Prior knowledge:
This protein is an alpha/beta fold. The protein contains nine helices and ten strands. Helix 4 runs antiparallel to helix 5 (142-154). The termini are far apart.
Amino acid sequence: MSPSRVFEAEKITFRYGRKVALEQVSFDLGVGATVLLGRNGAGKSTLIAALVGAAQPVGGRVLLDGRVVGGGSRRGRGVLRDIGWLPQSFGFPPQMSVEEFVGYAGWLKEVPRARLAGRVSETISLVGLSDKARQALGTLSGGQLRRAGLAAAVVAEPAVLVLDEPTAGLDPEQREEFHDLVRTLRTRTVVLVATHLLEDVEALAQRIMVLDDGRLLWSGTPQELIELAGSESGLQGLRRGFQAVLGSAR
Length: 250
């Protein structure tokens, strides 16, 4: 995979009826982990849906290495194969095994038949579920199910990995295990994590974008966000910086 991947949003606008959910959101991302931070209802999930081709914006476009993502064209649909997506919640047949689920995801993403079995095994090992490979999804814990979802998202070795509230509902130990996985993936993949949890920001972010009321308010490094609020560090500094960004937009 090329380390020069560029994932771009150009003036993404989205409406629900007369309500503007996203207003000309633009950014570009390279390899590494960017956290999209915002309160519940800020528009994060709507933006994620537009980025991965699950929703069609009324204005703007999404590009990967200069190729338009989605949009109904055959080429645009083809670009979607290079994007892995883990929604906040996803449907799954409870009787399907982890191995079958990840294999089905690889088949949908057109992983070559000769490579599919190997990729399924490698990916299940990556997320630490080798001992659960033949276990039914319906019997997994919440943390194990999130890891199975992550395996399905990355089985085709995507250039971009988009995670929507990936640690919601996980306990602290499960959250830290998930953070470890994402830190491994961000060394070679464009990773975008949408969250409202500052613990995710502290653990994962190399860059932060703050979204509120459908608008991108601020972008920078974790340290730059902390410095907006003074001398405090860690979670408290991130919290105060986030509040400062929201306050400056009023």
